[in-house]
Amino acid sequence: MDIFAHRGASGAAPENTLQAFTLGFAHGATGVEFDTYEVEDKIVVIHDRHLNRTTNGTGRVENATLSYLRSLNVGGGEPVPFLEEALNTVPEGKYCNIEIKAVRCVESWASIFEQACETSAMAAENVIVSSFNHPVLRKLTRLRPDLKIGLLTASYELDIPTFVKALNPWSVNVALDVVSQPLVDAIHRLGCRVFVYTVDMPEDILLMNNWGVDGIFTNYPKRATTLLAAC
Ligand code: G3P
Ligand code: CA
Residue 231: how many CB atoms within 10 A of its CB? Predict the structure, then answer.
């Protein structure tokens, strides 16, 4: 089972920071997950719509200027990271899951993403792009059919085949609160991987492994890799 450091190793370092991503890989993660917004001509890495919780700034991310975001401290003196900086922390052969929280427009997002991959030498084949915004994902699949798409959901949908086939994603990224063995099996029958978020407790990590889940997002990648190594 793949281990993704959720917002980096965010149980041990400030979330969505370069230090948290680096630590995630040092703790044995297969990949990192982080959250993004499109601001001016950059994709920036931060979870909340508002700056208050994770930075020393105020206001909405989407209303902020890049120079303001770069003047803030998200932990350890780091400013709000740019996508290319986050991608730079991913070792060769490892993965990242870019969660889109908001875009200005899918076309500009795709162009910034392409530049960030070039700047950082990140292989696009090792990137999963996920979002709760499914129309954005559908537009992206038309622009970049090569990208691995993660269909994010916090719901156990009424009609799983219809829900999944509407997008034909690479993976379905499901909330721990709604996942079950029948759901995992149903998604697998449709030819998709199942990733589950956010799985921190040892009992849940082992349960996901027993259910045949392909990967988990966890704030504690060291805990997960240690537990699974003992299985
Ligand atoms: O990508 C899985 C998970 O990160 C989605 O929820 O709120 O932690 O971004 P959230
Ligand atoms: Ca996320």
Answer: 9
The per-residue pLDDT for range 146-173, each reduced to its tens digit, is 999 999 999 999 999 999 999 999 999 9
Which atom of ligand 1 sits closest to the CA of residue 35?
9
Which of 17, 8, 16, 37 has the alpha carbon at shortest distance from 133?
37
User: Mind listing the domains of the chain with CATH numbers?
Assistant: 2-229 (3.20.20.190)
Rounded to two decimals, what is the model's pTM? 0.98
Instruction: Decide if 120 contacts 88 (C-beta within 8 A).
Output: yes
From atom 10 of ligand 1, which residue's Cα is the shortest distance away?
A: 47
Give pLDDT tens digits for 68-84. Answer: 999 999 999 999 999 99
* Cα–Cα distance measured from residue 115 to residue 120, given in angstroms and rounded to the nearest whole number: 9
Tell me how far apart the alpha carbons of residues 195 and 28 are, in angstroms, rounded to a whole number: 17
